[in-house]
Amino acid sequence: MAYYRQRGSIPPKRHTQHRDNDGNLYREELMGEEGFSSDSSLLYHRGVPSAITESRPWQLPEQHTVANSPLLPRHLKLHGLFDSGTGTDAVTGRRLVLGNDDVRISYVTADAPSPLYRNATGDECVFIESGGGRLETVFGHLDYGSGDYLMIPRATTHAWVPAQTTRAYCIEGNSHIGPPKRYLSRFGQLLEHAPYCERDLRGPGEPEQRDLSDVEVFIKHRGDGPAGLAGTVHVVPGHPFDVVGWDGCLYPYAFNVADFEPITGRVHQPPPVHQVFEGNNFVICNFVPRKVDYHPLSIPVPYYHSNVDSDEVMFYVDSDYEARKGSGIGKGSITVHPGGHSHGPQPSAIEASLGAEFFDELAVMVDTFRPLRLGEAGQACDDGVYAQSWSRGTQ
Ligand SMILES: [Fe+2]
Question: What residues pack around ion ligand 1 (CB closer than 5 A)?
Fold first, then answer.
């Protein structure tokens, strides 16, 4: 995110001496992307950021996947995956719904604080379906609530502290995730035609320091396990939250979906107008409450479409989703529409949509350019009948 922020105490010139009141040097750390050739930040630590005293393997949540075979559109019901009040946290408790070599989608209902966590495989974009709490990070903390996207750069040490039970839809890239490039100037400013701007992005508050020692940090990284992943726990002698100040263009931030300004038209607008972020080989879109098409003969719901190069995953967050009426889709549902299959509204939804002026819907969509496979949670909550929902409407 090429938008400069500064928090806490930093020296006037980078890479120069910065000392505390007793004359002790702070340790400067550069956290940067693409090998010193992209966005970065400089953090000033009281301790040594690379110090480790012990390590041990961390058994990641189940990462095995199976192919979507036979090839079918699917309806997955996420709310059935978790019981409430079970002491689940948003890191070790998340369950894998869908994944491929570019992105993994997990889901969790969390009501307990997570351990310190660092994802070394790529950026995470976590959408808060409901609940609230605090995302604590080495850069400072972000309060979160329903409708927030929390963007967490790769290898950022952080922890989830729910104040209320939190339903989180976790999009883990194997790459960086950020605003669509077509909305950015050549220097990274969000352009006038973008559906949001820098004022809508919330950065971390002032960094906080903790004095605990022998703290565990759970790291997800590349390895020999399923999906090429593995986990390690590092025990570190000082708490990683020891930063007195930082500045730069790389940091976690929050964006609330209510701040996305929808792009509308006289006739149906294609999904790219709903795009909010992108990673390598996938995009993230959101469908927000909006006025709909105002041509006198417009059809507000989508045409049937065969987006031949992608699998399409829609997560239904709130309100009615007009195009899916008659299919059993509700809050907490996911539909998976794979490449190679044409999809569109349930037949009865088309006539029903004529004359509509407003859609009160909220959904988050991930389109991937490589096929998605089903994780253990995706298999566990598949309704098994969605694929027949269009033919039921034609009989
Ligand atoms: Fe679609």
Answer: 312
